[in-house]
Amino acid sequence: MTTLREALFAPKAVAIVGQSNDATKTAGRPLKFLRQMGYAGRVYPINPGRETVLGERAWPSLAALPETPDHAYIVTPTEAAIEAVAECGQRGVKAATVLADGFTEAGEVGDRRVAKLRAICAATGIRVVGPSSLGIVDLRSRAMLTANAAFDERELPAGHIFAASHSGSMIGALLSRGKARGLHFAGLVSVGNEIDLSLGEICQATLDDPGIDGYMLFLETMRHAETLRRFALAAHQQGKPIIAYKLGRSEAARELAVTHTGALAGEDDVADAFLADCGIARVDTLDGLIEGLPLLRRLPPPPYPPPQAGEGKGGGRRATVGVVTTTGGGATMVVDPLSSRGIAIERPSDATLARFKAAGIEVKPARIIDVTLAGARYDVMKAALDILTTAPEYDVILAVIGSSARFHPELAVKPIVDSASATKPLVACLVPDAPEALAMLSEAGVPNFRTPEACADAMAAALRRRAPRSLDRSWPGSSSQVGFTRLAQSNSAQLGQAQVAIPSTASEHHIHQDVDARDKHGHDERGGRLLDELEAGALLELLGVPRAPTLALDAGIAQAPVLPFAYPVAVKALTAEIAHKTEVGGVVLGVADGIALITAIAQIKANVAQHRPGTRLQQVLVQPMIAGLGEALIGYRVDSAAGPLVMVATGGILAELYRDRSLRLAPVDLATARDMIAEVRALQALAGFRGRPKGDLDALANAIVALSQLAKDPSVVEAEINPLIVRSDGVIAVDALVKRA
Predict the structure, then answer these.
(1) Phi and psi of 690, rounded to 5°?
(2) Could you confirm whether domain 630-740 is CATH 3.20.20.80?
(3) Nearest to residue 128, comparing CAs of 162, 160, 87?
(4) Is 106 exposed, middle or buried (0-12, 13-18, 19+ CB in 10 A)?
């Protein structure tokens, strides 16, 4: 039986539905390319209006074919394409690739077309690539099922890289640019709109192909993130690295949300966290994408959990780079962007400097080891590389070569080629345009770059890469829906106990008795229901996050009660209708006594009435003022594409301004939580920076882990504690916000 991979990439028979007789047209290219590449399988061009196309017999329909093809490339207009997919499904064709557009991008009409295609897939079992797919190519089987004009070449050597792209034109760009750099592909696919087969599914279908040893992805969106993640985890287990370029770095793509977490974790931040948690190296430049995969093969990610979490971005000890060069200025062009990306460029140790001196090579104790023009001599550069690739202070060595790479490639890069088998990864960046030298390095398996920008980009992505984590999002012993039910039941019990402490003659506490009415007002503009702070705090406390002592008071109270904790206190509006109380004057801090408490309540009522007319304010919340060594924000939300996420950031009202945060897929374990804390610059002051008192970062890590467990319950879509006070002996939540679906 033909497998999906075979049908897609090594079909024995293919049909081209809508093949044109004009090879210059888009619909005329597939047959031309198949013949030009020497595809050995059987080809059935289908064109009911002609007896021949491009000199070959044309068939009137799929039904007229003498056999059922494994794969059909459908290059007809939109409505005819839907009919063709249906006919393919009925005939038993395993896979079809659809070129036509007019689907997900075409509004309601397009949505109806998508529904039709999905119904056909469900009814017949056919798998569809696209629509809006410029095709699938396998350079080993010569199955050139594409309409991309960049494939109009006779010499296209096969390699070991598989490329998948949301953009159809990019598979041609990757092919041609890769060829110019001596990089060759096993296969390429334009996935189009992914209404059936997703990019992750297609790539996963190729994982058992021994001729593929790495993956190159060009991403426009985060559709079908879960299938992409499954592929990434399986690829990591097989030792096949993945490098990706994703569009969408601009601030304009940032998503608005109820919590600071939503504002701090916009679309591109989520993509960053998602790809990193999948073990996918994300680059910022197209050249970095094309040239970076050989480096990933030489530089596998550290194992998970990190061996020494908390010392560097991504876990474990910060990777260090040793830089040796024949041109100080050229090397600086690489070192500067590497340093700005957080990659450590270290000076050689005294022991390493002594080895240079013993070898008769004069170098200065600087971050860049400049062997000057003497490095153009084989013996000098080879000795330098031998020293550096065995120096314990370095994890990877970068050799930056100047003009000699162009004029004397056999001398300039031969020492690098002869050091290719060193135990530590060796990378080369050539300052001049030196294609012959680049080809020599590629042939020797040395990762090489033609621009400083691409070199820094790919090296940083490789060194920041970490092994993917497995995620357990199932509620222990039950379905995920049970989780919130249990929490809600416990929540109600806790709130019932808290009711005893409320000195008010008002009606029953509205948390229990007024749920239906509060639902009408507690929904935010994007859907879902916000819990008030008392409910939210109780829910988070059940997860294991300590919170400040809390008392709810009737907003109409005329005389201050005896509090179960000492003054000064904080007084806050208690309502689910206001997410950020400080923005409407709903918080008064440092209330010194009972008289000031009554005044504060009146002030809050007046402020809320002014800023949010019509808001019901029946109660206020009173808490003792909590002092600590610092403030953190920990947040949780469910992203529409990537799923549950957890974040830690600088706390307080300026969290969005500073944007100092770390993000991961949820849930996380303790090692990951500690790693996240290490990535937030402001929180390093709580680690005893320059003799300052140490905050309890272990307690903060435990709070992050606890909050991330909300990933096991889909009824909570957003949650945040801001601030979470960090003390020397623990953490305390003093404000909480939770949003339910």
Answers:
(1) 50, 45
(2) no
(3) 87
(4) middle
Number of alpha helices (DSSP H) and beta strands (DSSP E) in the chain: 26, 31
Please give the Cα distance from 693 to 428 (Å, whole number): 45
Query: Which structure tokens are listed for 282?
Result: 């994300």
CB atoms near residue 634 (< 10 Å): 30
Tell me which architecture the domain covering 305-464 has in CATH. Answer: 3-Layer(aba) Sandwich (3.40)
Convert the pLDDT of each residue in 319-367 to its tens digit. 899 999 988 898 999 999 998 888 989 899 999 999 999 999 989 999 9
Distance, CA of 415 to CA of 411 (rounded, Å)? 8
Pairing of strands 396-401, 320-325: parallel
Long-range Cβ contacts of 559-567 (<8 Å, 24+ apart): 559/594, 559/598, 560/593, 560/594, 560/595, 560/597, 560/598, 561/503, 562/503, 563/622, 564/501, 565/623, 565/624, 566/624, 567/591, 567/592, 567/593
Selection from 254, 257, 260 nearest residue 722 by Cα = 260
Strand partners, 400: 325, 429
Count of C-beta atoms within a 10 Å radius of residue 670? 14
DSSP state of 547: B
In this chain, the answer to whether the domains covering 305-464 and 630-740 adopt an identical fold is: no
* Span 4-247 CATH architecture: 3-Layer(aba) Sandwich (3.40)
Give ∠ CA 262-266-267 in degrees, rounded to 5: 130
What is the C-alpha to C-alpha distance for residues 607 and 584, in angstroms, rounded to an integer? 6
Cα(616)–Cα(576) distance, integer angstroms = 10
Instruction: Report pLDDT digits (tens) over 90-116.
Output: 999 999 999 999 998 889 999 999 999
Tell me the angle at which helices 168-180 and 286-298 cross, rounded to the nearest 10 degrees.
60
pLDDT in tens, 254-298: 443 445 555 555 678 889 999 999 999 999 999 999 999 999 999
Which token pair is 71? 């794969």
Q: Which has the closest alpha carbon to 514: 529, 494, 497? A: 529
443-466: per-residue pLDDT in tens? 999 999 999 999 999 999 999 999
Predicted structure pTM score: 0.86
Check: CB of residue 578 under 8 Å from CB of residue 612.
yes
Q: Is residue 513's pLDDT more than 70?
A: no
Rg from Cα positions in the chain: 31
Please give the CATH topology (third level) of the domain spanning 480-517+547-623. Answer: Dna Ligase; domain 1 (3.30.1490)
For residue 507, pLDDT over 70 is answered with: no
The pLDDT score that the predictor gives to residue 417 is 95
Q: How far apart are CA 184 and CA 177, in angstroms?
A: 10
Checking if the pLDDT of 403 tops 90, the result is no
- Do the Cβ atoms of 232 and 280 come closer than 8 Å? yes
| Average pLDDT of span 219-225 | 91
- Going by pLDDT thresholds of 50, 70 and 90, the confidence category of residue 305 is low
What number is the average pLDDT over the span 704-724?
93
**Can you give the pLDDT at residue 521?**
42
Residue type, 492: S
**DSSP code at position 523:** B
Token code pair at residue 410: 């056999």
Q: Where are the domains of the chain?
A: 4-247, 305-464, 480-517+547-623, 630-740
Q: What is the dihedral of CA 87, 89, 93, 96, to 10 degrees?
A: 90
Q: What is the rounded average pLDDT for all residues in the chain?
A: 87
Hey, how many other C-beta atoms are within 10 angstroms of the C-beta on 391? 20
- Cα–Cα–Cα angle for 591, 592, 596, nearest 5°? 65
Report the amino acid identity of residue 52. T
Residue 51 pLDDT > 90: yes
Distance CA 739, CA 533 (A): 11
What are the angstrom distances between the C-alpha of 137 and each of 44, 240, 680?
Answer: 17, 20, 44
